[in-house]
Write a structure and sequence with these properties.
Layout lengths: L9 H8 L1 H12 L3 E7 L2 E7 L3 E9 L2 E6 L2 H6 L3 H16 L5 H10 L3 H14 L1 H12 L5 H16 L10 H19 L4 H19 L8 H20 L3 H14 L8 H4 L1 H22 L3 E2 L10 H17 L2 H9 L1 E2 L2 H13 L3 H14 L7 H13 L3 H14 L3 H27 L11 H10 L3 H11 L3 H10 L5 H18 L2 H15 L4 H14 L4 H7 L1
Parallel strand pairs: 5-6
Antiparallel strand pairs: 1-2, 2-3, 3-4
Helix pairs in contact: 1-2, 1-4, 2-4, 6-7, 7-8, 7-9, 8-9, 8-10, 9-10, 9-11, 10-11, 12-14, 14-15, 15-16, 17-18, 18-19, 19-20, 20-21, 21-22, 22-23, 22-24, 24-25, 25-26, 26-28
């Protein structure tokens, strides 16, 4: 059976894929890597041979083109070379009348067979394909009318699908996930019918087994997260149908949420609120409140006594849901104030207070955090928050005091910019003098260059003469030295040339094309900073020193 099929605009394909991907797709097309399988007026399916065989679908026609591909590139970037190749092959086949709809022929052939013959064919395939066999077993299990027998059979099938034998490596993970997904298909079908209560129990069990499997497999592509989310969705759907007794459901859900280690059942009380009703919600709140009251408060002075407790975050979130429903802002603040063991906690609390229209309380909380942690390295986010509120209130001197205190402990360009904005040139001089006074007591090392910050401040102020004096006396990291050279090409060309020449030598000795390309780019930049004769002599010296480095010589031309 032949048909014309859709035609895809090559320019639209290029725009979708980009020039590089389009060129690779064109190469696949010319390399006969595409096997067209089926077509309709707006759909083409194919297998494209690459690192492995990929199933590719291209939809639409003209300049309206979509589709999907089983290759990793499609998942990461979208429209891929296999889709380009498929569309181009479909265009050619349609133009020559050679597009053979293989799927339609197969469908017509199967219709001509008897049921027994089809059953035999499917079972023969299932014997060779474990995933297909498990899918058929799941479908067959759903025909069971006896609840106990159905439960037993489905539990066995779920157990088989989720079982881990040894460690599952990256290559085997997709096959394992496909088997589990097939088991969840059966539970999803179960959740929408008279056996919804059984689906509640089995979806919870499936989620537990998937969590256990995570520790014994390479799940770099995140299959388990998707499977856990699906199991949780099935549980919710089944609860909507079965409508379990509210108090028991509340206890079960609370246990699920508190034991959940991967986030599949987080925010459960919010998602199940309509199913729980007032009676279930009251029980959920009782359980959370009881556990919350048993937790010790975490403060700056007691942070070492208690390690991180994941229950704290979960319980706070549950109780915040109820407080928000009640419009109780004081309780919501109190919940956040139970863990103030870091500057970040104080910032979160202060930001919440401000969002609730309590600016004065926000400032009080922020300043309290700064004073309690005054012996620690200041968190600039908290410093800037407090300074911003003070500045907005017209209390600039107090804002500057916080900024200077933080700058004195842990100076940074961001702190410097805020001080410069508030204090002008006087702040600039004070900040530079402070850092200059510390340089003699803070010798440079391979990984630490105390002169970097003052050099960047001097560059920001265009004080390049002073910057070069500091550089000559104290040195700098490579990145800062090169930044100084670029900033000084007009005013200090000889100094900039010295920095560039030193870097060229480092790159030439390092070797490798990326290093050589960077070296050549710097040499080109140097050409604009010296007389032609001087540059020619410098270039000749480079050629002489590194004449054995053939790739570098090629790049130099």
């Amino acid at each position: 059976m032949s048909r014309a099929g859709p035609r895809f605009d090559p320019d639209a394909l290029r725009n979708l894929a980009g020039d590089k991907v389009f060129a690779r797709g064109l190469s696949y097309y010319h390399g006969d890597a595409v096997e067209l399988l089926g077509i309709s007026d707006a759909r083409v399916t194919a297998t494209v041979a690459g690192t492995e065989d990929y199933r590719t679908v291209v939809t639409g026609q003209g300049n309206r083109i979509g589709g999907e591909c089983s290759c990793p590139a499609f998942a990461d970037w979208g429209f891929c070379k296999h889709m380009v190749a498929t569309a181009l092959a479909a265009n050619e086949a349609g133009a020559t009348g050679g597009l053979d709809d293989g799927v339609a022929r197969i469908r017509a052939h199967l219709k001509s067979k008897g049921i027994e013959a089809l059953i035999d064919m499917i079972l023969d395939l299932a014997e060779q394909d474990r995933a297909l066999l498990r899918r058929l077993e799941m479908s067959a299990a759903l025909t069971e009318t006896d609840e106990a027998a159905l439960k037993k059979r489905l539990r066995r099938l779920i157990g088989d699908a989720t079982r881990i034998r040894g460690f599952i490596d990256y290559e085997r993970a997709p096959g394992w996930a496909a088997g589990v997904d097939a088991a969840l298909d059966a539970l999803a079908e179960l959740a929408d019918g008279p056996h919804a209560a059984l689906a509640i129990e089995l979806s919870r069990e499936a989620a537990s087994r998937i969590e256990q499997a995570i520790e014994n497999m390479d799940d770099s592509d995140g299959y388990c997260s998707e499977l856990l989310a699906r199991a949780a969705d099935i549980h919710l759907a089944a609860c909507k149908v079965a409508r379990p007794e509210p108090v028991k459901l509340a206890r079960d859900l609370y246990e699920l949420e508190m034991a959940d280690g991967y986030g599949a059942f987080e925010d459960t009380v919010r998602r199940y609120a309509d199913i729980l009703g007032q009676e279930g919600l009251a029980e959920y709140r009782r359980l959370a409140t009881q556990a919350w009251e048993a937790l010790p408060a975490r403060t700056a002075s007691r942070r070492s006594e208690f390690g991180y407790n994941p229950e704290h975050r979960k319980l706070a979130s549950i109780l915040d849901f109820f407080a928000e429903r009640d419009g109780d802002v004081d309780l919501r603040i109190a919940l956040r104030a139970k863990d103030l063991s870091s500057q970040w906690d104080y910032l979160q609390l202060a930001e919440f207070c401000l969002a609730q229209g309590r600016a004065e309380e926000a400032l009080t909380r922020a300043e309290e955090g700064l004073w309690l942690f005054e012996d620690d390295r200041p968190d600039e986010r908290l410093v800037f928050f407090a300074a911003g509120l003070l500045e907005k209130a017209g209390r600039r001197a107090e804002a500057e005091a916080h900024l200077w205190r933080a700058f004195g402990k842990a100076p940074s360009m961001d702190l410097y910019r805020r001080l410069r904005r508030l204090g002008g040139k006087a702040a600039t001089g004070r900040a530079i003098d402070l850092l200059m006074g510390r340089l003699a007591q803070a010798p440079a090392s391979r990984w630490h260059h105390p002169s970097d910050l003052v050099l960047r401040m001097l560059m920001a102020e265009k004080q390049l003469d002073a910057a070069w004096r500091v550089f000559r006396a104290h040195g700098a990291s490579r990145g800062t030295a090169e930044a100084l050279a670029r900033a000084s090409e007009t005013t200090h060309p000889k100094d900039a040339l010295e920095i560039y020449a030193r870097r060229v030598e480092e790159l030439a000795r390092t070797g490798g094309n990326p290093a050589y390309e960077e070296a050549v780019a710097l040499i080109d930049r140097m050409a604009g900073l010296q007389a032609p004769g001087e540059h020619a002599a410098y270039l000749a010296g480079v050629r002489e020193r590194y004449r054995r480095k053939r790739n570098l010589m090629k790049l130099l031309g």
